[in-house]
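Example for tutorial group B:
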């Protein structure tokens, strides 16, 4: 038996409850880890939730909201906030990818932060 959830959308409390429930069972998340439009869930909340899930041993399938943040960009994303260079350092853990994006484009969007997180799996598998 597996514990299965979908549409977490940055809700870290939901993610924690999912991962804590019957820890001896396999956990499978069906995607849509980001793009929460609820009031009160901040970008920091979404990033913490994403990091929690990526660092867990749960099986993570990507949903349409997650695939929107991959380099292939098959769908549009829901987040469109722009970041300053100082915020890039804050949100990225000093990611060279995001600094390069900022230098190339003169701005960085939340989309780039999520793309950076989704496309660096080796960091989360250690």
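The residue assignment follows.
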């Amino acid at each position: 038996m597996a514990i299965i959830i979908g549409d977490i959308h940055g809700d870290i409390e939901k993610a924690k409850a999912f991962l804590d429930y019957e820890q001896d069972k396999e956990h499978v998340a069906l995607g849509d880890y980001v793009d929460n439009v609820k009031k009160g869930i901040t970008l920091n909340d979404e990033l913490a939730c994403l990091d929690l899930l990526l660092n867990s041993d749960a099986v993570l399938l990507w949903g349409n909201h997650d695939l929107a943040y991959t380099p292939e960009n098959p769908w549009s994303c829901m987040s469109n906030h722009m970041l300053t260079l100082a915020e890039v350092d804050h949100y990225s853990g000093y990611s060279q990818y995001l600094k390069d994006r900022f230098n190339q484009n003169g701005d960085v969007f939340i989309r780039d932060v999520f793309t950076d997180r989704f496309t660096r799996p080796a960091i989360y598998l250690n």
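The helical segments are 12-20, 43-54, 64-67, 85-92, 96-105, 110-118, 121-125. Compare this with the pattern of hydrophobic and polar residues in the output above.
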